[in-house]
Amino acid sequence: MRKARNRTKRTSLKYQDAINSIKQNPRSIAQVANEFNLQPESFRQYLHKYEPELISIVGMGQNEQGKRTMCRSEKKYKKAIELYQTTTEDLKSIATRLGLVYNSIGGYIRRNYPDAIILHKKLIQEQKTTYKQ
Which residues of the chain fall below pLDDT 50? Predict the structure, then answer.
């Protein structure tokens, strides 16, 4: 029993500098693990277990559809996704207006939010039918 406690203390000390580094300058877990000569997957598992709030900033999370996405991407593209599924404005102009790369946001929406594409197409169809009448 005593060995388990010592191991936990040593493990937390081993990762402490890397955790502080991520808190000061958020970046990918793999990058920080390489900087501090840690095993990326072990470090990632430790963070998931003991630092869940830090993972929500830099790691993978689940979106509303249950797909695993990068939390940074989710925050970055949230406004664009909302605009895309609620307006008839094309994605290229939304990306330009918000300062995003069109190909990146387009791929992100296709992979993670196919429902947003369906909603957008329905809005466009509704707009076309109202113009014809």
Answer: 1
What is the token pair recorded at 64?
């509303």
Q: Where are the alpha helices (DSSP H) in 1-133?
A: 2-24, 29-35, 40-50, 52-58, 71-86, 91-98, 102-112, 114-132
Integer CA distances (angstroms), 6 to 2, 21, 130, in order: 6, 24, 71
- CA distance linking residue 3 with residue 90, whole number of Å: 60
Output Rg (C-alpha) for the chain, integer angstroms: 21
Residues 6+ apart with CB under 8 A from 7: none
Query: What's this model's pTM, rounded to 2 decimal places?
Result: 0.56
Cα distance from N-terminal residue to C-terminal residue, the chain: 78
CB count within 10 Å of CB 76 equals: 15
Are the C-beta atoms of residues 33 and 43 closer than 8 Å to each other?
yes
| Closest alpha carbon to 85 in 61, 101, 109 | 109
pLDDT digits (tens, 9 = 90+) for 41-69: 998 888 888 888 887 777 666 666 676 66
> Where do we find the tokens 């190909």?
103
Give residue 57's identity as a one-letter amino acid code: I
